[in-house]
Amino acid sequence: MSRILSFLMPLFLCGFVVAQDNAKDTIAKKFVYHYSVNNEALSSIDRSMLSEHPLGENIARKIHLLQDYYTYIEPPSPTSPGQKTIVVKPNIYNSLLKLNRYYKQQVKKGTISIESATRELNHFLDVGLSIVSDETGSFEAELRKAKSPDQIISVFSMVDLK
After folding, report:
1. pLDDT in tens, 145-162
2. Mean pLDDT over residues 17-23, rounded?
3. In contact, 121 and 102? CB cutoff 8 Å
C-alpha cells in the first residue's frame, strides 16, 4: 500500500503544479502588437466628413479612420446587382463599435466621466487601428467569447501596444 501511495503521490503533486501554471497563464495572457496609428492620416481627415461625437473630435477621427481601414465597398456585379459593404476582421470592428456605443451611453447616464471614457476608448481605438494588418486569430477568438461590453473591455485590456 505504501509503495502505491509513494508512486502516486509524486504524480498527483506534479499534476497539481501543472494545473497551477496553466491557471497563471490564462490570467496573465497578453497580446503584444506594435503601435502603428498613422497620425498623419488622422490629421488629414476633412472635418466635414466627421460626425459630432460626445467624446471629442479626436475620437470621431479615429472612428472614421477605423471605418476606412476595416470596411470596403464591393461594386455591383452581374450576379449581385447591389453594392456590398465588406468588413475585414468583423469581430474587432463590431466590438469597437459596441464599445463606442457603450461609452457614449455611460457618459450620457453620468456613470463615467468624459475624461476617463475618452481615455479608455482612445486606447481601444488605438489597438484596433494598430492591429488591422497583423495576425490576430487568437485575439479575435477571445473577442468572439466576449458578449458584454465589460468582457470586451477586459479582452482589449489584455493588449499591450509597444
Report:
1. 999 999 999 999 999 999
2. 42
3. no
CA 92 → CA 2, 95, 109, 141, 159, distances in Å?
Answer: 56, 5, 26, 10, 13
Per DSSP, the three-state class of 54 is coil
C-alpha atoms less than 13 angstroms from C-alpha of 53 in its C-beta half-sphere: 23
DSSP code per residue over 115-150: HHHHHHHHHHHHHHHHSTTS--HHHHHHHHH--SHH
* Residue written as grid cell 496573465: 28
| CA 94 remoteness from chain centre | 9
Mean pLDDT in the chain? 86
Amino acid 80: pLDDT: 85
Look at residue 27 and tell me whether its pLDDT is greater than 70.
Answer: no
Residue 112 near residue 103 (C-beta atoms within 8 A): yes
Cell reading at 107: 457618459
pTM listed for this prediction? 0.80
